[in-house]
Amino acid sequence: MTTPLVEAVGVGRSFRLGGQVIEALLPASFEVFPGDRIALMGPSGSGKSTLLHLMADLDVPSTGRLTWPALGASGRLRPGRIGMVFQASSLLPMLDLAENVALPLLLQGHTQEARERALQALDAVGLGSLADKLPEELSGGQAQRVGLARALVGRPKLILADEPTGQLDHATARHVLDALLAALEATDAALIVATHDAEIGARLRSVWYLSHGSLHSELEVEPAT
Ligand SMILES: Nc1ncnc2c1ncn2[C@@H]1O[C@H](COP(=O)(O)OP(=O)(O)OP(=O)(O)O)[C@@H](O)[C@H]1O
Ligand SMILES: [Mg+2]
C-alpha cells in the first residue's frame, strides 16, 4: 500500500477573535497520496487557506492529529518536501527573479546549483528570459508564475497552491495552470490547488469542497481534456 504524504485524523482549527470563537475548519479526516491532483473549492471564508496552511506545517491544528507519513516530521518539511504558493504575492522586491526563485535552495544549503536550478524553474514556467528583472517589473500573471517556480524549484513531493490564479483573466489563469501541470507531469508529486475557478476544478482529478469549515465531499471526477 502506498504511504500517504498527508494523513489527517479529526483535524480542526478554530481561532479566538475577541470573545468569539471562529471554527475555520471543523474536524476532518483525509489522506493525500503521491500523484494526487486535488482542487479545493468553496466560498470565501470557507477555510481553504486554513486547511492549506495546516497541511504546509505553517499552522497547528486545534484538535486532531496531522502527520506526513511519507515526508517526515513537522518542522522539517519546508522548504524541501513541501512547496507552497501563497495567495498574496510573496516575492521579495529587492531580489531579482532568479534570486527570488533560488531562495528555498539557498535556505537548504544548496548554494552551488541554486542559480542554475532557479533558471531552469523559471524556464519551466515560461519566464527564463526575465531572470534578472525585479518583481516590480512584472504583470500580476508573471508574478504568480514566479511564485510557482519558487514553489517547484526544490522538487517538492507536495505542492500546495493557494489561489495561484486569483485575480487573473481566464486565458492567463489557463497558462499558469498549464505551466504547473506541465512541470509536474513526469513526477509523482501531489498537487492541491485552492481555487474559486470552476475551470481549474474541472481539470484536476479530484475536487474537495469546503463549506463553513466543513470538508463535506471528495469526488473523483474525470479530468476535462
Ligand atoms: N489568523 C486568523 N485569525 C482569526 N480568524 C482567522 C484567521 N485565519 C482565518 N480566519 C478565519 O477563518 C475563516 C476561514 O478563513 P480562510 O482564510 O481559511 O478562508 P478561505 O476559504 O481561504 O477564503 P478566501 O477564498 O477568501 O481566501 C474565516 O472566517 C477567517 O476570517
Ligand atoms: Mg484563502
What does this structure look like?
With 225 residues, the chain is an alpha/beta fold. It has one domain (34-60, 73-220): Rossmann fold (3-Layer(aba) Sandwich). Helices cover 28% and strands 28% of the residues. The protein has helices spanning 48-55, 97-107, 114-124, 140-152, 170-184, 198-203, and strands at residues 6-17, 20-32, 37-41, 63-67, 82-85, 158-162, 190-194, 206-211, 214-220. A six-stranded mixed beta sheet has the order 5-6-7-3-8-9, with helices on both faces. Helix 2 (97-107) crosses helix 3, helix 3 (114-124) crosses helix 4 (140-152) and helix 4 (140-152) runs parallel beside helix 5 (170-184). The protein starts with 5 loop residues before the first strand and ends in a 5-residue tail after the last strand. The relative contact order is 0.20. Magnesium ion is lined by residues 48-49, 87, 162.
Keywords:
225 residues, binds adenosine-5'-triphosphate, three-stranded antiparallel sheet, 6 helices, alpha/beta, Rossmann fold, binds magnesium ion, 28% helix, six-stranded mixed sheet, 28% strand, 9 strands
